[in-house]
């Protein structure tokens, strides 16, 4: 209720109106303004009522909203009510609650997508245990699961590993197995040892080159399509594409300190990888570049071929 006293104009909850009025001591004829209770129980606050009582009290308003929704919004009562609620929240500067509600309405939820969490973990160089500690802390402090648990990240990670996407080379590649499974093998198998080579025991996770290449290109699908759009090459979805790849082998140093707990290990880790440098499409006699790696020396764009402990 808005206070009718001159130069006051304050808005007061119905239940506190009498109390507010008593603060205007200087006013004569104060009772002229007081709310007349016709007897019976005072009206309870809407949110404290049972669902049935809420329906009863809001019956007239609901009828009006329904009529408006049918006339203006194709009968979508939910959208009208949600929008009213959002406007009410924003009018009171409760933007945080409004943002969360908006996220739920758009089906996003308030949590981050597992792939986004994985990107955060990799870009901030967090180990699994460090990430798990952060996940637990945020969940305990905020009471909401904003970050996703580790198992969700592992599932998202599988989609990025060679062997995840089924594919077929046309024409088929010679001397290449059709099996895309990834196996753990002796990392030096197939390398002829020279006489002065010191025998090294290795264990490695090695991916088939073609499976790794398919996976890398699948991962870059959005960038490739955006590049084609920018150069107006939407009709050339079937290519032919020219993909330039840089291969590299990188010693990852002493891994004993990266294990965290447990005994120190004298191992060295080696990574054979490749980077997709650029992709272009030949249009007539002209070659148009649709993708170029901006940071070709960054380890974040290295696609693994073999991860080996020696």
UniProtKB/TrEMBL annotation:
Kindly state what the record says about how the cofactor is bound: Binds 1 divalent metal cation per subunit. Mg(2+) or Mn(2+).
Compartments where found: Nucleus
Q: Which Pfam families match?
A: RAG1, RAG1_DNA-bd, RAG1_pre-RNase_H, RAG1_RNase_H, zf-RAG1
Question: What do the Gene Ontology cellular component annotations say?
Answer: DNA recombinase complex; endodeoxyribonuclease complex; nucleus
List each copy of the NBD domain by range: 39-106
E.C. number: 2.3.2.27, 3.1.-.-
| Main location as per UniProt | nucleus
Record's keyword terms, sorted: Chromatin regulator, DNA recombination, DNA-binding, Endonuclease, Hydrolase, Metal-binding, Multifunctional enzyme, Nuclease, Nucleus, Transferase, Ubl conjugation pathway, Zinc, Zinc-finger
Q: What does the record give as the DNA-binding region? A: 39-106
Q: Gene3D superfamilies recorded for this chain?
A: 6.10.140.510, Classic Zinc Finger
Q: Where is the signal peptide?
A: none
Question: What is catalyzed by this enzyme?
Answer: S-ubiquitinyl-[E2 ubiquitin-conjugating enzyme]-L-cysteine + [acceptor protein]-L-lysine = [E2 ubiquitin-conjugating enzyme]-L-cysteine + N(6)-ubiquitinyl-[acceptor protein]-L-lysine
Cofactors named for this entry = Mn(2+); Mg(2+)
What role does it play?
Answer: Catalytic component of the RAG complex, a multiprotein complex that mediates the DNA cleavage phase during V(D)J recombination. V(D)J recombination assembles a diverse repertoire of immunoglobulin and T-cell receptor genes in developing B and T-lymphocytes through rearrangement of different V (variable), in some cases D (diversity), and J (joining) gene segments. In the RAG complex, RAG1 mediates the DNA-binding to the conserved recombination signal sequences (RSS) and catalyzes the DNA cleavage activities by introducing a double-strand break between the RSS and the adjacent coding segment.
Domain notes for this protein: The NBD (nonamer binding) DNA-binding domain mediates the specific binding to the nonamer RSS motif by forming a tightly interwoven homodimer that binds and synapses 2 nonamer elements, with each NBD making contact with both DNA molecules. Each RSS is composed of well-conserved heptamer (consensus 5'-CACAGTG-3') and nonamer (consensus 5'-ACAAAAACC-3') sequences separated by a spacer of either 12 bp or 23 bp.
Subunit annotation: Homodimer.
Could you identify this protein by its name? V(D)J recombination-activating protein 1
Q: What is the lineage of its organism?
A: Eukaryota, Metazoa, Chordata, Craniata, Vertebrata
């Amino acid at each position: 209720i808005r206070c009718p006293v001159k130069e006051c104009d304050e808005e007061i909850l119905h239940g506190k109106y009498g109390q507010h009025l008593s603060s205007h001591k200087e006013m004569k004829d104060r009772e002229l303004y007081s709310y007349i209770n016709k007897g019976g129980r005072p009206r309870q606050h809407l949110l404290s009522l049972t669902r049935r009582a809420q329906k009863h009290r809001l019956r007239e308003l609901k009828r009006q909203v329904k009529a408006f929704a049918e006339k203006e919004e194709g009968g979508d009562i939910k959208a009208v009510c949600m929008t009213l609620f959002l406007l009410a929240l924003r009018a009171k500067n409760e933007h945080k609650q409004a943002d969360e509600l908006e996220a739920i309405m758009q089906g996003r939820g308030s949590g981050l997508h597992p792939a986004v969490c994985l990107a955060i973990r990799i870009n901030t160089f967090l180990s699994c245990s460090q990430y798990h500690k952060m996940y637990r802390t945020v969940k305990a402090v905020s009471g909401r699961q904003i970050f996703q648990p580790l198992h969700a990240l592992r599932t998202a990670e599988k989609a990025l590993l060679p062997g995840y996407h089924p594919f077929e080379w046309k024409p088929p590649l010679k001397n290449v197995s059709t099996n895309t499974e990834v196996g753990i093998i002796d990392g030096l198998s197939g390398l002829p040892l020279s006489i002065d080579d010191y025998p090294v025991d290795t264990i490695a996770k090695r991916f088939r080159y073609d499976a790794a290449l398919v996976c890398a290109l699948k991962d870059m699908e959005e960038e490739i399509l955006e590049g084609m759009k920018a150069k107006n090459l939407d009709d050339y979805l079937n290519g032919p594409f020219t993909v330039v790849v840089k291969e590299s082998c990188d010693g990852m140093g002493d891994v004993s300190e990266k294990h965290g707990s447990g005994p120190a290990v004298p191992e060295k880790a080696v990574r054979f990888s490749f980077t997709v440098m650029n992709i272009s499409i030949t249009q007539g006699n002209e070659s148009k570049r649709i993708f170029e790696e901006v940071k070709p020396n960054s380890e974040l764009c290295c696609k693994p071929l073999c991860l080996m402990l020696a």
